[in-house]
C-alpha cells in the first residue's frame, strides 16, 4: 500500500477505489465499510481531499458505502517518534478531525447510499486520550467505531511496555468509563480469550479477515459461539466473501481439531455475511435482511450450474453455497433496488 502513495492524487485514488468497488460488486458485495486513512494528497495542506475520491468512486459504481473516516496521528506508542513522509498523508489532530467528520456527516445526509463512521487506526496510531474523544463522539452521534486490534503480538508487547495493559484492556476501560458504543475490532488474532469474551459481552463485533490474515501469516483468533463476527476483505488481493466465510470456519476447525467451534455452520455464516455486517456498519435497521421498510439490497446465486444443480431444492443449499461456491455462481447484485451486476446465463 505504501508504494501506491507515491504522488498520490485525487484522480489516482478515485481510480483505485472505483476498480476495487466494481470488483466487490461483481463478487456480490452490496455494502462496503471502507476503513480509510489516506486523507490528504498534499501533506502540507491537510484538507481531506482524498476522502472525496472514495465517496465519489462509490457513487460512480453504485455500491453502498460507509466511509469509516480513520484517525491516524502517531507512528507508534512511543508518541515522540515522527511519522514518515508517507504516513503524513494520514495525519490529523483529533480536534480538527472531529470538526471535519461532523461537517462531512452533515454533507452526506442527502446521499442515499453514503453514511459516515469513525475508525481509530490502532492503539499505535491513536493516543488513548484521543480515543476517549472518538468514543464519546460516536456514542453521542450514534455512529459506528472501528479499530485494528492485536493483529500481531508486538502490538501487545508495545502496549504493555508503554501503558501497562493490552490494547483490548484499553477498550474495556472505555466501556467502563463511557458506556456502550457500536464497536468493531478488526483482527483480534492474538487477543487473550478472557479479554475477548469480555469485549463480546459488551457487544463488540469481531471483524475477521481470514484471507488477509492467512496471506500475512497473522494467526487465527480464539472465537466462540455467540461472538458477533463480521468479515473483512482487508488487503483486497482476493475479493470473495464466500471464500472468506469458508476460511473463517476452516481456520477454527484446523485450530481446534473439531468442526463445532464457534458454531460456524452455513446458516450462521450466512448471518455473518448479512445481518452481522449491517450491524457493524450501523445499518441494521436498513439492510441485511428482507423485511418491510428495508432497502432492497440482494445477491442472487445461480443454481443451474454443475456446482449447485443437485442442491437447488435441498435443505443443504446453504451448505453447498458456502462450502462449494465462489464468485462464479454470483448472478445478480442489487443495491437499493438497482441491479448493478447481471451475469449473462447461457442455455442450450
Ligand atoms: Zn488489517
Automatic annotation (TrEMBL):
It comes from the Eukaryota. This is Amidohydro-rel domain-containing protein. It comes from Rhabditophanes sp. KR3021.
Amino acid at each position: 500500500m505504501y508504494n501506491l502513495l507515491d504522488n498520490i492524487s485525487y484522480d489516482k485514488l478515485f481510480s483505485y477505489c472505483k476498480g476495487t468497488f466494481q470488483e466487490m460488486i461483481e463478487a456480490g458485495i452490496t455494502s462496503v465499510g471502507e476503513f480509510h486513512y489516506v486523507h490528504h494528497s498534499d501533506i502540507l495542506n491537510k484538507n481531506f481531499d482524498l476522502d472525496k475520491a472514495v465517496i465519489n468512486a462509490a457513487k460512480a459504481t453504485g455500491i453502498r458505502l460507509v466511509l469509516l473516516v480513520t484517525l491516524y496521528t502517531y507512528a507508534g506508542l512511543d508518541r515522540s517518534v515522527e511519522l514518515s513522509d508517507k504516513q503524513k498523508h494520514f495525519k490529523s489532530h483529533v480536534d480538527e478531525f472531529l470538526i471535519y467528520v461532523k461537517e462531512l456527516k452533515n454533507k452526506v445526509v442527502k446521499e442515499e447510499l453514503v453514511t459516515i463512521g469513525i475508525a481509530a487506526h490502532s492503539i499505535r496510531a491513536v493516543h488513548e486520550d484521543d480515543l476517549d474523544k472518538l468514543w464519546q463522539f460516536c456514542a453521542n452521534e450514534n455512529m459506528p467505531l472501528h479499530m485494528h486490534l492485536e493483529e500481531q503480538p508486538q502490538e501487545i508487547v508495545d502496549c504493555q511496555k508503554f501503558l501497562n495493559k493490552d490494547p483490548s484492556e484499553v477498550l474495556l476501560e472505555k466501556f467502563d468509563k463511557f458506556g456502550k458504543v457500536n464497536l468493531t475490532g478488526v483482527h483480534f488474532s492474538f487477543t487473550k480469550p478472557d479479554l475477548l469474551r469480555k469485549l463480546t459481552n459488551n457487544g463488540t463485533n469481531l471483524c475477521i479477515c481470514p484471507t488477509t490474515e492467512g496471506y500475512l501469516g497473522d494467526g487465527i483468533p480464539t472465537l466462540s459461539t455467540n461472538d458477533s463476527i463480521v468479515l473483512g476483505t482487508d488487503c483486497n488481493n482476493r475479493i470473495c466473501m464466500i471464500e472468506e466465510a469458508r476460511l473463517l470456519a476452516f481456520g477454527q476447525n484446523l485450530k481446534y481439531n473439531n468442526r463445532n467451534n464457534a458454531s460456524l455452520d452455513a446458516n450462521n455464516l450466512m448471518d455473518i455475511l448479512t445481518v452481522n455486517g449491517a450491524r457493524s456498519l450501523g445499518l441494521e435497521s436498513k439492510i441485511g435482511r428482507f423485511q418491510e421498510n428495508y432497502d432492497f439490497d440482494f445477491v442472487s446465486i445461480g443454481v443451474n450450474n454443475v456446482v449447485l444443480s443437485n442442491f437447488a431444492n435441498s435443505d443443504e443449499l446453504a451448505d453447498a453455497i458456502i462450502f462449494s461456491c465462489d464468485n462464479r455462481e454470483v448472478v445478480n447484485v442489487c443495491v437499493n433496488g438497482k441491479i448493478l451486476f447481471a451475469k449473462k446465463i447461457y442455455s442450450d
